[in-house]
Amino acid sequence: MSTINTRGRRLALPLVLGIALSLAPTATATTAAAPAPASSKSATTPECAVTWGSKLEFRKPYSRRHVTDVRAGRHACFDRLVIDLDAAGDEKPGYGVRYVRRVRADGSGRVVPVRGGARLQIWVNASTLDEDQKYVYRPDDRRELVDADGFDTFRQVAFAGDFEGSTMIALGVRARLPMRVFRLSDGAGGYRLVIDVAHRW
Q1: Per-residue pLDDT reduced to its tens digit, 136-177
Q2: Which pick of 39, 56, 137, 178 has the fewest CB atoms within 10 Å?
Q3: Other CB atoms within 10 Å distance of the CB of residue 5
């Protein structure tokens, strides 16, 4: 009986070692295939590489449209200003957007001060007044068209005047950063003028 028990003990050790060794590669493979932790930088950091510049953006077709609203939004890589235009006329609205040392109101030439390290002068070929000289868009506070608190790039959006059928807006930003400008149809005959300013170069 003791001989059988001794042999059993001798056989048990190689058997245990064999089972352990056969399981070892499986455990290693499972560990290697484990997903990266959720806090990984690549999983949380947005790709914000932009190819925009900071020079004048300009289009100048005639337009009989009217400005109906000005609003702003925050995005992962840029801040966005949107100027809503109505469906009057069939033309795409003209515009001009450029960095300036000072924004000056059309007509009067007065300086429109805005907060920030740089200033964008935005001109859109659309009026805030209709043909009867009644306001289509009349902001409650001409110096604060939108609430820019908490924005990465925007510091202030101010009304800079309506002159001879065109509207001017002063946009104060953190620094002279890349920007892009484009027009979008709203699907109902109207347009949106979109100005994006990146958070960084």
Answers
A1: 999 999 999 999 999 999 999 999 999 999 999 999 999 999
A2: 39
A3: 9
Residue 123 · residue 97 · CB < 8 Å? yes
**Buried (b) or exposed (e) across 25-60, using 16+ Cβ within 10 A?**
eeeeeeeeeeeeeeeeeeeeeeeeebebebeebebe
78-97 confidence digits (pLDDT tens):
999 999 999 998 888 999 99
- Max mean pLDDT among 35-44, 57-66, 174-183 falls in 174-183
The residue among 104, 97, 103 whose CA lies nearest residue 56 is 97
**Residue 56 token pair:** 């004048």
Task: Pick the closest to residue 121 from 133, 113, 129 (CA basis).
Answer: 113
d(CA 156, CA 115): 6
